[in-house]
Design brief:
Length: 454
């Protein structure tokens, strides 16, 4: 395993979680939104002037993007906890990196950056860790080639790859074959450098942080719902002007303490300042359909995104059917939803999960295995995951293989808080990619060392 790791993860870090024997309680904030953090650094790097960012996620994925932006000539500096300053080079102004760009574990960083690079007449080589080097890049290199950029990839379109961006980039007109905000965003970022209109059609709406932030930096972006799907148009070669970005708490990270509170008897937890963009909140809708006591307080708009405080209280959940159309709005939340489903009464069927197979791990099989090793009956039928809930007690006692996937690790540890026997993970190191301080925050809610190294 050691040669499959990046230098920042020389050794696996086993971890375990056990039931605290008391309710979870307290208020907490979760780290900044990962999607918005990547975009803030990238847009700042191609804007004119200095972008001030607050609440930036200082997880390893986002730090990779910060390093890449520096390598491409932007000035990126941390000025305080979560406070960053990016002095940009203007649209089309990135310079050739002197070395390989290593995007670590981050698919978002890699794919969005390929969009930016496509529009610049520079040569770059990109790689990542063993998980990222397994993930499909053809889904971006194929549409991006229409700009005139050239790509040389490993077999199957995988990293490492080399790119020579287009000298005179052409605008893309592309109908997405899969619902993917990363592919949509890569096309739009390439369109920044092309004259004329870049047009992307998505069959189902995916997170729209790119569209929102492009507008915030002064670009002209229109969105139209048509029979063909959601049509996004960007007017090319805008002058992007630096603009302040306030990054809200990540709803995908808030999911973990929220599900933990729903499962540990007597719990009441408030997660403050969570991003509530409607294209991200499918998990909260689903949990409510399962009967969860979830409330939003103090709803407001901050930095152009809706945010609020989420109050979660212990509830006996009911199994339900989760429709496939829900997937884009909760694509990263299925592993932790499966943990909630394990404790629910009756069967939960989550439909249309094909995209889970190409995440940081094959999350569909990793989630099914997480459940099985802890005594829960689960099956994969086609692209569906079916979980037989126990109506309360989760046996636990298993060791979960996390496959370099932060969300599998955190889901397993949440399960341990609600299980009869502790749940172990082979490696908790990748939690640092998206949720630094996860275990100590959870232990703060538990009032004890419920999560610890074995
Ligand atoms: C992301 C989009 C999603 C999501 C990922 C972040 C983004 O990926 O899973 O964690 O920031 O655009 P896909 O575009 O592959 O669905």
């Amino acid at each position: 395993m050691s040669n499959a790791r990046t230098m920042s993860h020389p050794d696996p870090r086993p971890f375990r979680a056990a039931a605290p024997g008391r309710p979870l309680s307290g208020r907490l904030g979760v780290p900044g939104d990962k999607s918005i953090s990547h975009r803030a650094l990238m847009f700042g790097a191609v804007a004119v002037g200095t972008t001030e960012i607050t609440g930036l996620l200082e997880g390893e994925d986002v730090l990779r993007t910060a390093a890449a932006m520096r390598a491409l000539g932007a000035q990126v500096e941390q000025v305080g906890p979560g406070a960053w300053r990016v002095s940009g080079r203007g649209v089309g102004g990135l310079v050739e990196p002197a070395d390989v760009l290593d995007m670590g574990n981050s698919g978002t960083a890699a794919r969005l950056l390929l969009g930016l690079l496509s529009g610049h007449p520079i040569f770059a080589v990109m790689t990542g860790d063993a998980s990222l080097r397994r993930r499909p890049m053809k889904r971006v290199t194929e549409p991006l080639a229409a700009t005139g950029a050239q790509f040389w990839t490993r077999e199957g379109g995988r990293l490492p790859l080399a790119v020579r961006g287009a000298t005179d980039p052409l605008p893309i007109d592309y109908v997405l074959p899969v619902a993917s905000a990363q592919v949509k965003s890569a096309c739009l970022l390439a369109g920044l450098c092309a004259p004329g209109t870049t047009r992307v059609v998505e069959p189902e709406p995916t997170r729209d942080h790119t569209e929102n932030m492009l507008r915030h930096f002064g670009a002209t972006v229109s969105v139209e719902d048509t029979a063909e799907g959601r049509v996004v148009r960007l007017e090319g070669q805008p002058e992007l002007v630096a603009a302040p970005v306030q990054v809200p708490g990540d709803p995908s990270s808030a999911a973990f303490p929220i599900v933990a509170a729903l499962l540990v008897p007597g719990s009441r937890v408030v997660v403050e300042n969570v991003g509530l963009n409607l294209l991200r909140t499918g998990l909260f809708t689903t949990l409510r359909e399962m009967g969860a006591a979830l409330r939003v307080e103090n709803e407001r708009v901050a930095g152009g995104e809706p945010v609020g405080d989420i109050v979660a209280e212990y509830t006996e959940l009911q199994g339900i059917e989760v429709p496939p159309g829900r997937a884009p709005a909760m694509i990263d939340e299925y592993p932790v939803l499966a943990v909630a489903a394990a404790a629910a009464r009756g069967v939960t069927r989550m439909r249309g999960l094909a995209e889970l197979r190409v995440k940081e791990s094959d999350r569909l099989s990793a989630t099914a295995a997480l459940l099985a090793v802890n005594g829960i009956t689960a099956a994969i039928e086609g692209d569906d995951l079916i979980v037989q809930g126990t109506g309360g007690a989760i046996p636990g006692g298993g060791t979960v293989e996390t496959h370099m996937d932060h969300r599998i690790a955190m889901s397993a540890l949440v399960m341990g808080l609600a299980a009869q026997m502790p749940v172990a993970v082979d490696d908790a190191a990748f939690i640092e990619t998206s949720f630094p301080g996860f275990a100590s925050l959870m232990n703060g809610l538990a009032g004890c060392e419920a999560m610890a190294a074995p």
